[in-house]
TrEMBL record:
GO molecular function, one term: S-methyl-5-thioribose-1-phosphate isomerase activity
Family membership: Belongs to the eIF-2B alpha/beta/delta subunits family.
Leader peptide range in chain numbering: none
Protein name in the entry: Uncharacterized protein
SUPFAM superfamilies: NagB/RpiA/CoA transferase-like (SSF100950)
């Protein structure tokens, strides 16, 4: 999950901060986000 991804990024010396998905828009608006990594557990065909 997201915590494992964040751990692996930091372990490999890649600066990373785990934030709630609901906070991304506000942080992007303030210019405080350089990149976003998202994932999905389930994807429906419809």
């Amino acid at each position: 999950g997201s915590r494992l991804t964040a751990f692996e990024l930091v372990h490999d010396k890649i600066p990373a901060t785990l934030i709630a998905d609901s906070a991304v828009a506000a942080l992007m608006k303030d210019g405080r986000v350089d990149a976003v990594i998202v994932g999905a557990d389930r994807i429906a065909a419809n």
